[in-house]
């Protein structure tokens, strides 16, 4: 409700009364809006008018809310509390720029170890993935002095649209612009990265972010660059920063405190020109920027970051031990060694005969294991459990034959099996998942149909290329044989398609896909007509895939999907090989091919 009270001052340039009514240019078609306008709810009123007096009585009598007015003393109390907290925080944390970035120095060795492991294509466990995420968040907030809102709201598209900047001394830097943050209505936030830092964020983008995306079913319209282990936008980067400090037993330094400490040092040591670069990089409010700012340029942004680095520099692995389970295993083995005659291989063979490995097999009691395997019972039971776990893992993987499942879907399916012990790990399912050649799976077809109807294909985005124009790039890995997306458009008969083909320019023939259905009848999909009737506000992914006869990495495949008794012909694009992150999707759609009207 846009009702404004008399006690809200109207700071206009004209000397108008507080009850001056600006001209109402807005006209409403909605009945409720019209009724509100007729009742005067879009106008200013004195506090003693009938409308507001009646509303006050309604709040007091009907809802028992006596304190519905905002008192000025409460605002002062809140301000005083905030001031006290800021004072306490400033007095108990580090006082030099170098101490602000101490956690980055302490954690750098661990971080570089994880980076090296990722760049060697080794798989990372979740603690290592979180270490990389927390370090990069801390890097932007403590070294680059960015607000938490910049880290939270930086989008995938803003990362992919970053610009290269070459300094006068030949150094190569990268500049990222972030639109949404605290002072977004006044300033564009910019992040300037040197070559090493750009490589770090790129490693996160290619190796950690895709792993997190597996845990989320939904696809955001404007994907965030930094995401949580659940695959969604991080909730509060400041919380992550606090956890990171706690991990290395250091006092917590917030982004706000770091900015204040660097600002204090800047005022005492920088020239006016350097202060201008510094203020520009920090995206200060207009009130601050009016003292210094000129139009932002990538060069100024990079030079500002070099000054911040100058400020920071100017001021001054656990060994694993065997657990109690392994110790107790050795004790049991020594206790039984004198009474056994079977060797290890014989005991294992007898163990498998006595206790066949099945998907739903229950755990075996220790006394039964000892009776069969004697001193080898631990070895035999470990083998038995590993075999069952692999069998169960393959069973779960078989439930998702065409599209890689999210962690949530895999976990949900595992829980439905009611396995009390020796449960399959979700991360193992995702690690060993490979697409199946079986295309007649009812549950999977249902999931594919949902994606076809929503056109929310995960792991893909449309990019603008100065040479090619638009192209489709990957943001996660696709395994050979996996469904990537569909070729979406208006279904036509073969005759309609050929008539449209005859009237189509040669450079647009690739938007028409000809195929034969299961009965041998020629059909066509028209992706030339934009938008398609079922997605009037969406630029579908499939029609933006470019052509390459030699470098194609996907192929089309006819799939019949059934919904509510109706059968749909869908062309799915299947990965011809393993496709890494940040690779363009390419499809051979030469007009000589049978699927574009040729004889094949």
Describe the structure.
The chain is α+β, with helices and mostly antiparallel strands and 600 residues long. The chain folds into four domains: 1-69, no CATH class; 92-314, hpI Integrase, Chain A (Orthogonal Bundle); 336-432, no CATH class; 442-596, Beta Complex (Beta-clip-like). 44% of the residues lie in helices and 12% in strands. The chain is built from 22 helices and 13 strands. The strands form five sheets. Strands 1-2-3 form a three-stranded antiparallel β-sheet. The chain has a three-stranded antiparallel β-sheet with strand order 6-12-11, with helices on one face. Strand 8 and strand 9 (522-526) form a beta hairpin. Helix 12 (272-281) packs antiparallel against helix 13. The protein is globular and about 90 Å long. Residues 1-16, 285-295, 316-340 and 591-600 have low confidence and may be disordered.
Short account of what is shown:
The protein is of the alpha+beta class and 600 residues long.
CATH architecture of the largest domain: Orthogonal Bundle
With strands numbered from the N-terminus, the spatial order across the biggest sheet is: 1-2-3
Number of helices: 22
Cα end-to-end separation? 64 Å
Number of domains: 4
Please identify the top-level CATH class of the largest domain. Answer: Mainly Alpha
Strand content: 5-15%
Mean pLDDT value: 77
CATH topology title of the largest domain: hpI Integrase, Chain A
The total beta strand count reads 13
Label the overall shape: globular
């Amino acid at each position: 409700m846009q009702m404004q009270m008399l006690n809200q001052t109207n700071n206009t340039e004209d000397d108008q009364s507080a009850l001056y009514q600006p001209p109402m240019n807005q006209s409403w078609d909605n009945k409720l809006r019209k009724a509100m306008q007729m009742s005067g709810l879009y106008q200013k009123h004195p506090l003693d008018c009938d409308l507001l007096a009646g509303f006050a009585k309604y709040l007091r009598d009907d809802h028992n809310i006596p304190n519905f007015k905002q008192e000025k003393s409460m605002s002062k109390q809140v301000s005083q509390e905030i001031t006290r907290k800021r004072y306490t925080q400033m007095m108990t944390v580090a006082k030099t720029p170098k101490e602000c970035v101490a956690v980055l120095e302490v954690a750098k060795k661990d971080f570089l170890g994880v980076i090296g492991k990722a760049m060697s294509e080794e798989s990372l466990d979740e603690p290592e993935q979180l270490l990389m995420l927390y370090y990069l968040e801390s890097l932007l907030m403590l070294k680059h002095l960015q607000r938490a809102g910049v880290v939270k709201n930086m989008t995938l598209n803003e990362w992919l649209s970053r610009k290269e900047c070459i300094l006068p001394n030949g150094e190569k830097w990268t500049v990222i612009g972030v639109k949404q943050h605290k002072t977004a209505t006044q300033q564009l936030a910019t992040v300037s990265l040197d070559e090493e830092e750009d490589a770090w964020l790129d490693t996160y983008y290619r190796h950690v972010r895709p792993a997190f995306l597996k845990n989320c079913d939904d696809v955001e319209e404007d994907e965030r660059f930094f995401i949580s282990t659940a695959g969604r936008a991080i909730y509060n980067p400041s919380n992550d920063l606090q956890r990171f400090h706690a991990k290395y037993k250091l006092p917590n330094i917030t982004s706000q405190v770091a900015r204040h400490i660097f600002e204090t040092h800047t005022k005492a040591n920088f020239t006016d020109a350097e202060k201008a670069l510094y203020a520009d990089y920090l995206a200060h409010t207009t009130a601050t920027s009016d003292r210094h700012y000129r139009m932002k340029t990538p060069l100024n942004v990079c030079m500002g970051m070099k000054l911040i680095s100058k400020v920071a520099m100017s001021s001054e692995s656990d060994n694993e031990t065997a657990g109690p389970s392994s110790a107790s295993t050795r004790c049991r083995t020594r206790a039984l060694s004198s009474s056994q005659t079977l060797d290890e291989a014989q005991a294992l063979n007898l163990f498998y005969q006595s206790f066949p490995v099945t998907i739903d097999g229950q755990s075996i009691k220790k006394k039964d294991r000892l009776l069969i395997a004697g001193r080898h019972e631990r070895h035999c039971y470990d083998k038995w459990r590993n075999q069952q776990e692999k069998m169960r893992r393959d069973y779960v993987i078989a439930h998702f034959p065409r599209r890689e499942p999210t962690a949530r879907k895999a976990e949900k399916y595992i829980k439905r099996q009611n396995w009390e012990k020796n449960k399959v790990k979700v991360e193992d399912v995702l690690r060993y998942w490979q697409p199946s050649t079986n295309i007649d799976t009812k549950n999977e077809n249902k999931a594919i149909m949902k994606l076809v109807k929503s056109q929310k294909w995960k792991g893909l985005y449309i990019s603008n290329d100065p040479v090619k124009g638009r192209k489709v790039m990957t943001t996660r890995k696709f395994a050979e044989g996996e469904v990537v997306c569909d070729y979406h458009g208006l279904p036509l008969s073969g005759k309609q398609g050929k008539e449209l083909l005859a009237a189509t320019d040669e450079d647009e023939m690739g938007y028409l896909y000809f195929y034969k259905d299961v009965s041998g009848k020629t059909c066509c999909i028209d992706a030339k007509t934009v938008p398609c009737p079922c997605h009037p506000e969406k630029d579908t992914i499939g029609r933006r895939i470019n052509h390459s006869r030699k470098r194609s990495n996907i192929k089309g495949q006819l799939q019949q999907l059934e919904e509510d008794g109706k059968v749909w012909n869908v062309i799915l694009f299947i990965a011809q090989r393993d496709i890494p992150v940040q690779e363009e999707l390419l499809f051979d759609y030469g007009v000589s091919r049978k699927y574009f009207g040729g004889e094949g």
